[in-house]
Each structure stands twice: as structure tokens, then as C-alpha cells.
Design the sequence.
């Protein structure tokens, strides 16, 4: 019961954070702002996967999170390269 | 005992979500891209790390401990590198800085401020230091 309540609260907090990041993507003003906000949204999805694992009582989500952190790093670096137009 | 671990784990997941929310708040409220990136990089990495430890306390086993330790190592190392790459991209594309971060405490010491003759190989306009084009107004939140 406590688990349900607290994970629901964490779920709401994460979703509100992701909506705020989506608003930053829409407003900009620079491309790096949008890249940072996209990073936040990606980590928000990882956090939602963690909460889903707690609700389902399944520890397989640890594997998903492990892969997602690697993919997220590559995504952040790719976005940074995209913003600079390929310059190093 | 296991019940205690479960409750502590749930508390850690909630704490991670709150730290994440603080980062998102900084993303919305801070004035320029560099300060926003500092908020996002710190809070995002720490939030996910806390949530991972919370999940580990729900499912304690040696294999899960190894996986979570590896994920934590990757997360804490790569969040900083990713944030640095993004801030570097912002600098290279000449993203404007907030006016409040452009302080110069020695501005009144005229003889000590570098002039165009002091900086070899770089053309410096008076009053223009670095790649700043326009200070961002306070209206953009």
C-alpha cells in the first residue's frame, strides 16, 4: 500500500519534470537548451522504467536501465555533435 | 529485515525523483544555457543513481548488486561527460550568457584591464570579451 502510494508520487513528479523539459524544448532559445532538455526527457524515461519495475516486482528492469545509461551517453554526445554541426 | 530494506528502497526512489524534479526546475527557471546545463547534469545523474540504489534494495542479490554497481559507475561518469559535451557545443555555437554571469570585479582598474595590444593574435573590441553576442534579457524564463 505504501509502495503504491510512494511510487505513484514519484511517477507524478517524474512526469511533471518531463513536461517541463518538453516546454523547454519548445521555447529554446538555443539548440543547446533543446539538447539538454532532450537529455532530461531521456533520463525521465529511464526513471519511469525503474518505477515500472518496482510496481511489477520484476528485477529485469535493472538490465534495461544498465543498457539505457550507455545509450543515453551516446545520444547526448551525438546531440552535442549535431548542435556544433560536426565541428569538434 | 527485508521489510525495512523495501521501505528504505522506496524512499530512495522517491528521493531520486525529487532530485530529478529539482533539475527540471532549474531547466525551466535558470537564465542561460550554461546554468541550465549545470542543474540538469548534476540532478539528472544523481537522481538516476539514487533510484538505482532504491531498486537494488528492493531486489537484493549478488548479481543485481554487480549490475547496479556497473550502471552507477557508467551513469556517474557519463552524465558529467555528456553535460560537458553539451556545454561545449553551446559555447561553440555562441549561445548567449546571462548578464548576471558577466561580472568583472577589476573593471575600475583601467590600467590592469587587457587592451587589444596586450592580447596577441586576438582582435578584441573594447567591452567585448569572449564570444558573447547579446546578453540575454530577463524576460526569457
Sequence:
Amino acid at each position: 500500500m505504501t509502495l503504491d502510494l510512494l511510487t505513484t508520487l514519484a511517477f507524478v513528479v517524474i512526469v511533471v519534470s518531463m513536461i517541463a523539459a518538453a516546454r523547454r524544448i519548445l521555447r529554446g532559445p538555443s539548440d543547446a537548451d533543446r539538447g539538454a532538455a532532450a537529455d532530461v526527457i531521456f533520463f525521465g524515461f529511464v526513471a519511469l522504467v525503474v518505477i515500472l519495475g518496482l510496481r511489477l516486482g520484476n528485477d529485469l528492469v535493472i538490465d534495461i536501465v544498465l543498457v539505457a545509461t550507455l545509450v543515453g551517453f551516446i545520444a547526448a554526445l551525438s546531440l552535442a555533435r549535431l548542435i556544433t554541426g560536426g565541428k569538434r | 529485515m527485508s521489510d525495512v530494506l523495501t521501505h528504505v528502497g522506496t524512499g530512495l526512489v522517491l528521493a531520486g525523483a525529487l532530485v530529478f524534479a529539482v533539475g527540471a526546475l532549474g531547466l525551466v527557471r535558470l537564465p542561460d544555457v550554461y546554468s541550465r546545463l549545470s542543474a540538469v547534469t548534476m540532478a539528472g545523474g544523481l537522481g538516476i543513481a539514487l533510484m538505482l540504489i532504491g531498486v537494488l534494495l528492493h531486489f537484493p542479490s549478488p548479481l543485481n548488486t554487480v549490475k547496479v554497481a556497473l550502471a552507477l559507475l557508467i551513469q556517474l561518469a557519463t552524465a558529467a561527460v555528456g553535460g560537458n559535451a553539451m556545454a561545449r557545443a553551446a559555447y561553440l555555437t555562441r549561445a548567449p550568457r546571462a548578464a548576471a554571469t558577466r561580472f568583472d570585479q577589476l573593471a575600475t582598474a583601467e590600467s590592469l584591464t587587457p587592451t587589444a595590444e596586450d592580447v596577441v593574435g586576438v582582435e578584441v573590441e573594447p567591452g567585448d570579451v569572449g564570444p558573447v553576442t547579446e546578453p540575454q534579457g530577463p524576460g526569457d524564463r
